[in-house]
């Protein structure tokens, strides 16, 4: 790969939407890309649409944990390697599937995930900020929002 010139033309993206990433294996993958000549990598997480083909409501806690795991991978990787995080929101699993987790029900998850990434973690202050931004008196992370 280093001799091909490809690492100077592209930046790989590592995708994983799980709430329990294998952080160590992701860190090793980043290091492997560096050894192959890639100076930058991207991570891809999800704020919705990655928990079931016919899921109607968004479980914020799952997606928040995914963001926090990616932040852990970032903190354990070389400081200059991460180019960015693509925060995805899938609408369907394939073109023959029904739509899942429509955007209106996922907006609280999007807000929580963005704030967690922006603030480098999740805290009561981040929760209060999201509640204020969305005009919600009680943001529920570990149950489906009503």
TrEMBL record:
Name of the protein in its database record: HEXDC Hexosaminidase
Q: Which residue spans adopt a coiled-coil conformation according to this UniProt entry?
A: none
**Gene transcribed to yield this protein:** Hexdc_0
Q: Which GO terms describe its molecular function?
A: hexosaminidase activity
InterPro entries on file? GH, HEXDC-like
